[in-house]
Each structure stands twice: as C-alpha cells, then as structure tokens.
Write a structure and sequence with these properties.
This protein has 9 helices and 10 strands. With about 250 residues, the chain is an alpha/beta fold. The strands form 2 sheets. A 6-stranded mixed beta sheet has the order 6-7-8-3-9-10, sandwiched between helices. It starts with a strand and ends with a helix. Bound molecules: adenosine-5'-triphosphate.
Length: about 250
C-alpha cells in the first residue's frame, strides 16, 4: 500500500474542470515531482490533498486512512501533511522564531520554551539562528522560504507538499532553497512537489508526473520522463522547455 493514495480525483471551479480523474500514489520516503504547463492543475492537486480545496469526487487516503470528504479532522490532517507555498506566507507581525514556534505551541501543546527550543534548533540547522528575532521582511526571499519550510517541519509532519516554492525567488536565491529540499529528501522526507525547475525535478525526484489539463499524461522515473518520454504531450512540453533553455 502506498503512503498517499489518490483515486479518481475530480475538481472543478464553476464550469472549469481542473482535475479530471487523478489517480496517483506516493510511497513513503518518496519524492514525487509534478510538472506541467501553467494551469495544468498542479497547485490545485496539492491544495486538495491538504483540504485547502474541497473535492468534487474521488478519494484521498494517507496511510490507508481516508483524508477527504466530510468528517475529516482538517487540523489533524494538516499536522500530518505540511504545505509550503510560493509566497512563503510567513506571519509578517511575528519574529522568525515565533513564526516557527507558534503552531507547535498552539496545536501540539508544547510549552513556549519547548516550542522556542525546537524552532531555534531548526533555524540553526538552516544557518539562520542569528535571524531568530528578526521579522520576515528583514530576510531575503530565500531566507524567508527556508524559514517557511522549517516552520512546516516544526510540526514534524509525515509528508510535505511544496507548491512552486522557488517561483517567487530571484534566480540567485533559488539554489539555497533547493539545497534544503535536497537535504530533506536525503533524510527520507516524503514529498510531493509542484515545480517549474526541471533540472531540480530531474535531480531530486524518485518519480516525475506530467500533468496536462487536469489529467496525468505520464509518470515515470526522471530518467524515463526526461530522456525518453512516451506520450506526445510530454514530448511537446519538454521540447518547449528545452527551447526555452530550462532543461
Ligand atoms: N480558486 C480558484 N477559483 C477559480 N479557478 C481557479 C482557482 N484556483 C485555480 N483555478 C484555475 O484552475 C486551473 C488550474 O490552476 P492551478 O493553479 O492548479 O494550475 P498550476 O498547474 O498549478 O499552474 P501554475 O504552474 O501556473 O501554478 C487554472 O485554470 C486556474 O485558473
């Protein structure tokens, strides 16, 4: 049994069918990258998994337990599955330390000292302990994104969803964020990522999934997808990526 299982997932916005029968599974400790053109449904898929969107049809299971539909404890679900967004979404009025400590304190019941200690340990890990008392706007985009990633880690999630986490960054700041993701992958964190960074997807993924207009066209190892794609849509997408110098 896969760790995360998605079966026949459908999601529409009004008349716009964005996800059209997604079947996907992610194994424990696996890194799976979603690639595809803008609007293909990558973010929506991640948001459905984390219950930020309701689903119209289908089922999502985590470790065998249903996590979609009515009756699901959304707070519990979000303890288990962290999500990091393109725009960091750090709380602007809190210090970096509080940003990381607040959820473990409020939701996991850690004491303030324990939560701060956990947060500081995470900041040390990413070399930002000296920024603990700064506010997010005093950090670079790359530093903010790394802080947002460890904020998710502070909840000790079983899985992370990463939604275009480098898209809002200046190119010179991308690598520090990708290095952190690479490190998490090395530690065995189960991750589902939506990314436009093809070289990164190629390097860090166990499998790559190509989405086209809300359906999975092709899924395979990075080697297979990037060097021998079978589906004409995947081939076309990769040709355009190569022509743009992004692979
Ligand atoms: N809240 C919303 N309300 C209405 N339509 C939405 C909403 N969110 C997404 N959509 C639509 O759903 C489609 C898929 O969007 P989504 O953001 O999932 O694609 P994506 O593959 O992540 O794109 P990108 O690579 O640009 O982030 C798009 O047509 C988008 O306009």
């Amino acid at each position: 049994m896969a760790f995360l299982e998605i079966e026949n997932l459908h999601k529409s916005y009004g008349g716009n069918a964005v996800l059209r029968g997604i079947d996907l599974s992610v194994n424990q400790h696996e890194v799976l990258c979603l690639i595809g053109a803008s609007g293909s449904g990558k973010s929506t898929l991640l948001r459905c998994i984390n219950a930020l969107e309701t689903i119209d049809e289908g089922e999502i299971r985590l470790d065998g337990d249903g996590i979609s539909g009515p009756g699901v404890d959304v707070n519990k679900l979000r303890e288990h599955i962290g999500i990091v967004f393109q725009n960091f979404n750090l709380f602007p009025n809190m210090t970096v330390l509080r940003n990381i400590a607040v959820a473990p304190e409020m939701l996991l019941g850690l004491s303030r000292d324990q939560a701060n200690e956990r947060a500081l340990g995470l900041l040390e890990r990413i070399g930002l302990a000296d920024k603990a008392n700064a506010h997010p706007d005093q950090l670079s985009g790359g530093q903010q994104q790394r802080a947002a990633i460890v904020r998710s880690l502070a909840m000790e999630p079983r899985m992370l969803l990463l939604d275009e986490i480098t898209s809002a960054l200046d190119p010179e700041l991308v690598s520090e964020v990708l290095s952190l993701v690479r490190e998490l992958a090395g530690d065995g964190m189960t991750m589902l990522l939506a990314t436009h960074e093809m070289n990164f997807a190629r390097e860090v993924s166990n499998r790559v999934c190509f989405l086209h207009q809300g359906t999975i066209c092709e899924i395979g190892t990075p080697e297979q997808i990037f060097t021998a794609p079978e589906h004409p849509r995947t081939q076309e997408f990769l040709r355009s990526i190569i022509a743009a110098g992004r692979l």
